[in-house]
């Protein structure tokens, strides 16, 4: 039995971001040990069944305070030709089906430094397989919303408290200045 998770990728997009997020664990070395949940067997000598309903182990509370740095990393007209951007954040969990969900902040109109102060709760049944997925978009009434940045972080790597979270572009490259100020808390 193998005890490492290995993922190959082609192209960019959400699957690539999830893979990058998974490998941020273990110092970004490219090797992540499987969680005990996937190594242990139950009384029937079977490993974890992803379809089996499990009880909630912990609840992750996330507060998205604000974002800053876009005006330093983007041209003034990158998002809108005549006004500052209208940013919002999509935040969710990628993991087992019972944990997977996406929520969204309100859009903050015409502001390069948006302040959301929105809080979300994510009950987690298998936190050791969960990734916190964060995407920032610029709301566009007439067209498709513009991409502002993203990050994926293994829930196991999150630490309680207020953090400045770096944001990455669609190719997974870290923006020099863009960050989100967020608070993480685990409730049992």
Keywords:
3 helices; 188 residues; Immunoglobulin-like; mainly beta; four-stranded antiparallel beta sheet
Describe, in plain words, how this protein is organized in 3D.
- The chain has a single domain (50-187), classed as C2 domain (Immunoglobulin-like, Sandwich).
- It is built from three helices and ten strands.
- The chain is 9% helix and 40% strand.
- Strands 6-3-10-9 form a four-stranded antiparallel sheet. Strands 5-4-7-8 form a four-stranded antiparallel sheet.
- The longest helix has 9 residues, at 14-22.
- With 188 residues, the chain is mainly beta.
- The protein has helices spanning 14-22, 36-39, 70-73; strands spanning 4-5, 32-33, 58-68, 87-94, 101-104, 115-124, 131-138, 146-154, 161-168, 174-187.
- The model has no long low-confidence stretch (mean pLDDT 86).
Blueprint (SSEs and pairs):
Blueprint: E1 4-5, H1 14-22, E2 32-33, H2 36-39, E3 58-68, H3 70-73, E4 87-94, E5 101-104, E6 115-124, E7 131-138, E8 146-154, E9 161-168, E10 174-187
Organism: Solanum tuberosum
Main location: membrane
Domain C2: 33-169
Radius of gyration: 18 Å
Mean pLDDT: 86
Number of helices: 3
The helix content, as a percent range, equals under 10%
Largest sheet: 4 strands, antiparallel
Q: Sketch the topology as an H/E string, one letter per element.
A: EHEHEHEEEEEEE
Structural class: mainly beta
The best one-word shape is elongated
At the third CATH level, what is the topology name?
A: Immunoglobulin-like
Give the second-level CATH assignment, the architecture: Sandwich
Distance between the termini: 32 Å
* Broad CATH class: Mainly Beta
Poorly predicted runs are none
Strand % is 35-45%
Oligomer: single chain
Task: Going across the biggest sheet, name each strand in turn.
Answer: 6-3-10-9
CATH homologous superfamily name?
Answer: C2 domain
Number of strands: 10
Number of domains: 1
Membrane topology: Peripheral membrane protein
Protein name: phosphoinositide phospholipase C
Organism: Solanum tuberosum (Potato)
EC number: 3.1.4.11
